Records
---
Amino acid sequence: MALDLAQLPKTEAQDSRHRALIQGSHLTKIYATSTGPLVALDDVSFDIREGEFVSLVGPSGCGKSTLLSLLGGLEERSEGTLTLNGQDLDRPRPDIGFMLQTAVLFPWRSVMENIRLPGAILGLDRKAQAERCQELLELVGLAGFGDRYPNELSGGMRQRVALARLLAHDPDVLLMDEPFGALDEFTRETMNLELLRIWSATGKTVVFVTHNIGEAVFLSDRVFVMTPRPGRLAGVVEIDLPRPRQTEMMREPRYSELVFDIRHMLGVD
Ligand SMILES: Nc1ncnc2c1ncn2[C@@H]1O[C@H](COP(=O)(O)OP(=O)(O)OP(=O)(O)O)[C@@H](O)[C@H]1O
């Protein structure tokens, strides 16, 4: 873990945080189901700035994963516009990476082979990739585990591998669907701190889905609060807690206030 984060490649994001990178306007997603059309997202408009950490929170079924799939170009929208850097976002792109709740690792490939897979698929330079992947292994705290196989790792370690793999081809945008949701509280907190450390060192734009309001407040610059049936954006909450964030911040009145504001928007109180 002796990697110097300052030496990792930085995007221009850290210098241009106020520019809208992703813009969604009147986005609607209607699924055809056996019982008729289902409006999963209804008229959702937003922008996401370059280098920003945005979380999507809301109860089950409010369309968080649907919105993330649209952002990843994995689903076709029914109405509205969605752009990245002004270009229509209607298909998967190498500059957008996706990470899910459970690490989908190939069991017959070693940790290092799993991490190197996206770069190999994209035909990136093998030597540069090998060096980068070694650095990433250290970055996620798995130095020395490159030759292990996924079934030899704990759940937290597998998510670390997935995080390294997500970063391997250096996408500008990280879409994360409850990436640490299946981990125990302690490992989850550690992973959140690691993620913030990596995010602040690399300037990636992160869109993070979670059910956990406290986690969203702790991590984010802004929290998009969504309500279900049909999925709508109830509001956007600016998180004005200072950075870098420390777990002790969760004791502060401002943290609790923000959590309660969001709970209120969701009608939890
Ligand atoms: N492929 C699909 N076909 C039909 N309906 C779908 C499909 N994917 C999602 N839905 C429906 O769209 C709505 C939104 O689902 P989505 O998974 O986006 O919600 P979510 O907020 O991510 O939920 P959760 O927090 O439980 O993961 C739900 O009513 C769901 O049943």
---
Amino acid sequence: MPSRPRPLVAGNWKMNGLLASLAELVAIRDGVAEGRAGEAEVVICPPATLIALANDVRGTVGIGGQDCHPALAGAHTGDLSAEMLADLGATYVIVGHSERRADHSESDTLVRAKAQAAWRAGLSAIVCLGETREQRDAGLTIELVGRQLQDSVPDGATTTNLVIAYEPVWAIGTGLTPTTRDVAEVHAFIREKLVARFGEAGAAIRVLYGGSVKPDNAAELMAVPNVDGALVGGASLEAKDFLAIAGVYA
Ligand SMILES: O=C[C@H](O)COP(=O)(O)O
């Protein structure tokens, strides 16, 4: 059996962050250098406007994009290719975040193409999955997550090119979280599917939990079996809170 994967704590700044926000990244970098994230790998996904500057000050903190277009280049006004993100120093890119799926009608097929683009550019894809409140209430969570996992993740996943983030849509930015039992159920299901599809790699591909992860609930959530870290939104905007979350692994 492969050893337990190195935990990953990733911050998604979403559409937040001006030049002055780089001070938070510098504080995160310094905290990580002091060992405050322990064994965890730490990544920040700032808005694309800050990636190049973030890369200049990141230290050992990895930098990721929040989305990419499937194509290498071309007439796609406003979009960014995975190669452009890599060119600026990113090593990760989030694809299929529920806000992209909702705001831009992104399908599993498109998310899969974006993950493939990430791999083409040498990036690791953080593929997001998760049910809405209505889907959970209707008992459709496992079915939905299974379909998203099957259809959004390309063949050929490895421990280095793929991270899964389970993010119940209703938990994002709401202060609500599923019970640890519910998190355990979904993560165990994702693990089972990853192993069935990718074999030994599937046992070690990291599966993050995301959705209202805060300093006061991080330890409980990160202790759930098959939870290999967190994808943090709001609480990643302040170094103090983000380091407190990553500090679970110290
Ligand atoms: O990508 C991050 C997630 O959407 C979680 O956001 P949140 O921590 O603000 O709930």
